[in-house]
Amino acid sequence: MPQGQVSVVPDDKLTTRQRRNRPLLMVHTGEGKGKSTAAFGLALRGWNQGFRIGVFQFVKSAKWRIGEQTVLERLGALHAETGEGGPVEWHKMGSGWSWSRKAGTEVDHAREAAAGWAEIKRRLGAESHDLYVLDEFTYPITWGWVDIGDVVDTLVNRPGHQHVVITGRNADPRLLEIADLVTEMTNVKHPMDAGQKGQRGIEW
């Protein structure tokens, strides 16, 4: 697509403007690094355009505060103070890493994941945000904690103009089928392959 030119113009009876401004469902999947990072970069661009940003982070521990959360929440505060950009909400929807030692059973985590998805469904119905970042949402789907059929039906039929980006490995084929944009991150080379642990400012 050189210089932003599309390769195909569909016969969908839409104007160029209508087609360009359709709400998108995006999926970042694959084994490589960068899925969440790319989604948070998208959130930064959306904020700059005045989008109402909603980040819903599944699986990660509520005690783990990543750098992007600090930045986006500060941008949300800036919006509240000056009107610049858009409002930002950040929610952690799960109990933490399912394979880590912590309080709670798999049943507890499944229940919390289902409750998180129910809240997202409510917000989609209310058109609460312009961009939803469902970070690591593929995992509760894979584990059967959230019903993929319900996810597909909800996303396909979401009202208004709401963009959604989902991240995580092993995205369900039914999710990929309905997505407008799918990016698969491939791990070609990583410092951890040579025994180097994550660095401040790079991994978090």
UniProtKB/TrEMBL annotation:
**Which InterPro entries does this entry report, sorted A to Z?**
CblAdoTrfase_CobA, P-loop_NTPase
Q: Where are the transmembrane segments?
A: none
Query: Has keyword Calcium?
Result: no
CDD domains assigned: CobA_ACA (cd00561)
UniProt enzyme class: transferase
Origin: domain of life: Bacteria
Documented EC number(s): 2.5.1.17
Name any one GO molecular function: corrinoid adenosyltransferase activity
Q: Which UniProt keywords apply?
A: Transferase
> Does the record bear Ribosomal protein in its keywords?
no
**Name this polypeptide is given:** Cob(I)yrinic acid a,c-diamide adenosyltransferase
Q: Which organism is it from?
A: Mycobacterium paraterrae
Taxonomic lineage: Bacteria, Bacillati, Actinomycetota, Actinomycetes, Mycobacteriales
